[in-house]
Amino acid sequence: TVADAIMDRIIHTAHRIELTGESVRKMAAYRGK
Fold it and tell me: What is the average pLDDT across 17-22?
């Protein structure tokens, strides 16, 4: 259904943002040392 497609997209985008945030934090911690 349309609702399923929308939820899929929202969850997928949120997941990508989470992953990006993680790597940015790791890079910042790595540079700080």
Answer: 80
Number of domains in the chain: 1
Q: Provide the residue range defining the domain that includes 8.
A: 1-33
**Could you tell me the CA-to-CA distances from 16 to 1, 3, 31, 32, 33 in Å, in that order?**
23, 20, 23, 24, 26
Residue 30 to residue 22: CA distance in whole angstroms: 12
Task: Say whether 3 sits in a helix, a strand or coil.
Answer: helix
Token pair listed for 10: 């929202």
State pTM to two decimals: 0.48
Q: Which residue has the tokens 């899929």?
A: 8
Q: Which two tokens stand for residue 16?
A: 């990508």
